Structure formats: structure tokens, C-alpha cells
């Protein structure tokens, strides 16, 4: 006789599925509301996030000064001004070489376009000058028709630059206050929260801070190694803009996987325009070797006790972040994923029943004494 489904068990399974589905819908709804609120408050949230990332990078020297009896305000002000001077020097170090070598690059781009036209005019494409001229005329007409859109885009770009400056200024001020008053935050938070939250939230915050610091410092170290190795290769090949390309490699290291691809593409393009195809292929080989060393040697060594995220999770997080929020999403994807992992691990630990410790075995009964042939037990 074939087995039949139990109506009682079926109804119980459906009720359980419906209850779990409703709970998941409520969690997703709460997540969507939280993200919507963060989006409405982004003008405040973004400087706060930037300040936290900068604080994790500048906290070690601040802690060193505080441990050597520097007042908190003086230590924070010294590190903030030092960081500002370093950032300004880096920007000047990039802008000056770019401005000095821009005519050479413009000439190289023009020569590259001329060579490309010569190649396209021959087999197998056989594109004549009249076809190129027609395409240029069409592009010019479309450009003239898009003057209004270009003006709007220019105004948008100016607004973006202004917002970026405001964000940078706010982030610097917040970084100063975080460096000065950061150690007081967790005790203050403990006093403000009721009940068990006064223990759980500060604990998760402390673990998240350690994870965020591990991410920023490890990415900075790996980015510095990449910048030095690739910069030496570009310098040996006499590729222009070595310092800006090295700085771009260092900055791009904070966007895992995607940043390395972007920085490598720019370096190969500059080498192709300025030095030719052979040097561009050599630069590509150098970048591939350095990236392989980074992915298989540097990062496992540096981040083995850091984030604890699989490379596939990192790639998916960066892809999702870039699709949701562009460059900002790519930058924040891995830290956010690491913080989610920290929170989940803590919640899982709290919800897991402790493993019972087996009771020790009672002392075994002493072995009975064996009497000898004379009926006397041996001593």
C-alpha cells in the first residue's frame, strides 16, 4: 500500500513555512526602511563613514602619542594636521608631474590616433579617410546638439566637487573628535543602553572597530607593496607619470579586485600611448605578476587573522556594492560585509547552546588484593 501524506504534518509544515516567510518579509522590510533612512541622511552618514575609515588608519600614531603622556587633544590635533599635510603633499605630487608631462602625453595620444588610422586604412578593415571624416562630422553634429546636456553635466560636476570638499572638511573635523574622544565612546554607550543591550551593542561595536581597522591597515599595506613594485617597473621602462600611477595603484587597493583592474588598465594605456606596444605588454606582465603575488602571498599573510571573508564573498560584495552605489558602494562593500559577518558571528554565539562538558568518571574501585598461597596479601 503506497504511503500517503499526513494531513497533520502537512498543515504544520505549511504553518511553519508561512510563519518563517512572514518573519523574513518583516526583516527585509525593516532592512529596506533602514537603507531608505540612511539614504535620506547620506549627507551626514557619508562624512561619518569617511571619518571612521580615516580614524582607523590614523589611530595607531595617536595611540602611540597618548601612551607617551601626550594630552588627547594635542595628540589628535598633531596627527590630524600631519595627515592633512601628507594628503596635500600627495595631491601636489600628482598634479605637478601630470601638468609637466601633459604636452608629451597629448602628442603621444595624437600619434597613437594617427597610427590607428593608418592601420585601419589597410587590410582587412580598409577604412578610407572619407569614412573617417564622415564619422567625425556625425560626431561633431551630435556634440553640437548636446550642448545643453553638457552644460548640465558640467554644473553637476561642479556641484559634486563642492559636495566632495564639504565632505572632506566634515570628515577631518569628525576624525579629530574621534581621535580625541574615541576611547570614551564605549563606556558612554554602555551607560546609555538598557538591560542586555548595554553589553551586546558595545561588544559588537568593539569587534566591528577591530575588524574595520584590520581591513584599512591591511589594504594600506598591500596597496603600498603594489604601488612600490609596479612603480619600480614603470620607472625602469621609463613610462611617464610614474608617481601618479603609483599613487593611483595605492588608492585603488582600497577597492578590492575592481580597483586593481582599473589601476592596471590606466598604467597599460599610458605605456601604450607613450612607449609603444612592446613596453605596454611588459607593463601588463608586471602588473599581472604583482597582482598574483598580492592575491596569493601578500593578502593571505596580512589578512589571515583579519576579515575572515572568502575571496568569492569579496568579489560578490564588490559587484553588488558597485551596482547599488557605484564607486562608493565598491569602496564600502567589503567593510560592510565584514561588519555583517562580525554581527552574525556574535548573534550566532549568543543563540548557540553551550556544549555540555562531560562529567569526569568516578574513581574506579580499587583492585582487590590478591592473596598468596599462604593467605597473606602482598605488601
From TrEMBL:
Residues 354-379 are annotated as: Disordered. Its main location: membrane. Keywords: Cell membrane, Membrane, Transmembrane, Transmembrane helix, Transport. The keyword Transmembrane applies. Pfam families: AI-2E_transport. One of its GO terms (biological process) is transmembrane transport. Residues 369-379 have a biased composition (Low complexity). It comes from the Bacteria. The chain crosses the membrane at residues 20-38, 44-61, 73-96, 161-179, 220-237, 243-270, 277-293, 313-342. Belongs to the autoinducer-2 exporter (AI-2E) (TC 2.A.86) family. PANTHER family: PERMEASE PERM-RELATED, TRANSMEMBRANE PROTEIN. This is Predicted PurR-regulated permease PerM. It comes from Cryptosporangium aurantiacum.
Amino acid at each position: 500500500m503506497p504511503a500517503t501524506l499526513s494531513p497533520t504534518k502537512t498543515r504544520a509544515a505549511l504553518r511553519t513555512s508561512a510563519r518563517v516567510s512572514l518573519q523574513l518579509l518583516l526583516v527585509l522590510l525593516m532592512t529596506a526602511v533602514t537603507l531608505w533612512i540612511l539614504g535620506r541622511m547620506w549627507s551626514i552618514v557619508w562624512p561619518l563613514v569617511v571619518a571612521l575609515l580615516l580614524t582607523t588608519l590614523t589611530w595607531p600614531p595617536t595611540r602611540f602619542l597618548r601612551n607617551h603622556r601626550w594630552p588627547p587633544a594635542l595628540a589628535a590635533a598633531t596627527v590630524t594636521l600631519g595627515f592633512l599635510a601628507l594628503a596635500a603633499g600627495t595631491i601636489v605630487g600628482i598634479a605637478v608631474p601630470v601638468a609637466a608631462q601633459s604636452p608629451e602625453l597629448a602628442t603621444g595620444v595624437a600619434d597613437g590616433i594617427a597610427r590607428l588610422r593608418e592601420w585601419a586604412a589597410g587590410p582587412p578593415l580598409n577604412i578610407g579617410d572619407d569614412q573617417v571624416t564622415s564619422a567625425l562630422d556625425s560626431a561633431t553634429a551630435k556634440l553640437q546638439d548636446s550642448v545643453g546636456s553638457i552644460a548640465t553635466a558640467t554644473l553637476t560636476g561642479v556641484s559634486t566637487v563642492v559636495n566632495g570638499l564639504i565632505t572632506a572638511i566634515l570628515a577631518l573635523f569628525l576624525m579629530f573628535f574621534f581621535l580625541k574622544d574615541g576611547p570614551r565612546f564605549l563606556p558612554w554607550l554602555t551607560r546609555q543602553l538598557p538591560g542586555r543591550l548595554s553589553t551586546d551593542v558595545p561588544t559588537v561595536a568593539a569587534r566591528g572597530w577591530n575588524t574595520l581597522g584590520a581591513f584599512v591597515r591591511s589594504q594600506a599595506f598591500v596597496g603600498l607593496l603594489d604601488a612600490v613594485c609596479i612603480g619600480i617597473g614603470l620607472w625602469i621602462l621609463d613610462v611617464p607619470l610614474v608617481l601618479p600611477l603609483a599613487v593611483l595603484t595605492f588608492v585603488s587597493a582600497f577597492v578590492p579586485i575592481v580597483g586593481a583592474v582599473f589601476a592596471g588598465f590606466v598604467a597599460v594605456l599610458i605605456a601604450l600611448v607613450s612607449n609603444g606596444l612592446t613596453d605596454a605588454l611588459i607593463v601588463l606582465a608586471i602588473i599581472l605578476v604583482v597582482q598574483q603575488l598580492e592575491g596569493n602571498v601578500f593578502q593571505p599573510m596580512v589578512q589571515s587573522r583579519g576579515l575572515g571573508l572568502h575571496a568569492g564573498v569579496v568579489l560578490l560584495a564588490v559587484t553588488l556594492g558597485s551596482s547599488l552605489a557605484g564607486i562608493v558602494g565598491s569602496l564600502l562593500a567589503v567593510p560592510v560585509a565584514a561588519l555583517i559577518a562580525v554581527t552574525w558571528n556574535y548573534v550566532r554565539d549568543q543563540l548557540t547552546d553551550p556544549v555540555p562538558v562531560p562529567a569526569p568518571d568516578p574513581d574506579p574501585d580499587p583492585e582487590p588484593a590478591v592473596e598468596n598461597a599462604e593467605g597473606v596479601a602482598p605488601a
